[in-house]
């Protein structure tokens, strides 16, 4: 792992277009050889985009692997690149809402797009934050990741085992909560709400924390600029009348927003995750390898 970290440090000196293209080559190799993740990705795309042809889904799946591998290499720039370089490569629209964050408790809702680390850096160039953190299995990588994500300003990291109280306390003290809301963690503190028309186990925590703190939800999403120019980080207007009286309906509203953004940049949403792993009682799973993927396009 030390060698890998050293290699990432060396590569971060490359111009972004060259580093990005190298990542895309690695993505093509992963798409060819990581059969289990390819299967998950294509399964998700079949579920979410049934109107697409198999060729379209194959193309987007391959683009996703390229985007994901590219994002991993580009973390070297986020972790070790100069502040001037980052400000040059990250376009923020319309800007980090620092005054809005200071005015009242804020959840910065960041769905799982491959550029989510870029969104975090964009915030930390202007403001401290708090976030949930899962310790990495490798101690060396864990240390690098922690330092890389907190090198501009202090970051309060909370584990899932700590519960929600430290998050609420930090928000009331003025720290925005940078939250990744859209992974399947089972049915604890979750509800089945539609995502692309499919019941998906979805955390209700964003709505519950917003209600407990009388705070607001400000979505933030990072996507790639064309022609390897860098990234654009978009801060969306705070949601009005959120969460309202119905936590499940508020969670449904959140999923609908994420779905809209995923349709705008489908290759950059995190399709390699088993988003529909947890099923309602009596419903079969989606990811059995017995349901073999269409391999006609793998050699492309």
Describe the structure in brief.
The protein is an alpha/beta fold. The chain is built from 11 helices and 9 strands. The protein has helices spanning 2-11, 16-33, 35-48, 54-80, 83-89, 98-103, 116-124, 139-149, 165-172, 205-213, 247-264, and strands at 90-93, 106-109, 129-132, 155-158, 177-179, 190-195, 198-203, 216-224, 231-235.
N/C terminus separation: 31 Å
The Rg value, from CA coordinates, equals 19 Å
What is the total tally of β strands? 9
Shape label: globular
Output the number of helix runs.
Answer: 11
- Low-pLDDT regions: 291-300
Assess the beta-strand content as a share of residues. 15-25%
Major β-sheet profile: 7 strands, mixed
Supply the helix-strand structural class. alpha/beta
**Can you give the helix content as a percent range?**
40-55%
Count of spatially separate domains: 1
Strand order of the largest sheet: 1-9-8-2-5-3-4
Q: What's the SSE pattern?
A: HHHHHEHEHEHEHEEEHEEH
Overall average residue pLDDT: 93
Description of the structure:
The protein is of the alpha/beta class and 300 residues long. It has one domain (2-268). The protein has helices at 2-11, 16-33, 35-48, 54-80, 83-89, 98-103, 116-124, 139-149, 165-172, 205-213, 247-264, and strands at residues 90-93, 106-109, 129-132, 155-158, 177-179, 190-195, 198-203, 216-224, 231-235. The strands form two sheets. It has a seven-stranded mixed sheet, sandwiched between helices. Strands 6-7 form a two-stranded antiparallel sheet. The longest helix is centred in the N-terminal third of the chain and has 27 residues, at 54-80. The protein starts with a helix and ends in a 36-residue tail after the last helix.
